[in-house]
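Task card 7
Instruction: Convert sequence to structure tokens.
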Amino acid sequence: MTDQLSSTVSIVFLGTTLASIILYYFANGKALKSSLIIVVWSIIHSILAQQGFYKNTTSIPPRFLLVFLPSILFIIYGLQSTSLFDVSKKRNTTLAAFLHTIRLPMELCLFGLFSQELIPEVMTYEGWNFDIVMGISAPIIAYLTFRKKITNQWLLVWNCIGLILIFCIFFIGIFSAELPFQLFGFNQPNIAVTLFPFILLPATVVPIVIYMHASEIFRLLKNDKERP
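Output:
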């Protein structure tokens, strides 16, 4: 039963990760260059995780810096003024909202990982992770956006809430891992992120979600300023 659950969670997780990349591609006007970078980046981390590279959590500097620092740089680069100008022109706002639907199956995967003792309860919707709210609300917001039944102000609020929630679970996940600065989950630490395919959560999925929220916030604020 455990092996069956593990296979199911892995398949759902991989499918959801792939869906996040595809939705990113189409939501950003078929952004081929950045999407290919994300794919190559994901493959590299998948290979490293399969080789057990991230299981060494005591190395100095921490090997997880290889996950975080390039992702942060990618987000910063994407939020430059020239990139944001392209976003404003090419962004499919309906798909940008719908992309966050992936957070629902991701939350179910996290609960499956908790049941297998690979992450602490604090990282699930039974703990301090309320990100499932975004996954449930995303298709509704996408529909309202498509029908033009939601104002920019409400979209801005929704994206701000989503950004706060993803940062919360991101930091909970980091501080639950077996790293020198661990703060949570000592009885059941977050070891899933050292394994394939779950390394793709901090390496691929979370950066995509953060970028989509942040770029939408900047786009909405920019549109409001340009109004007469």
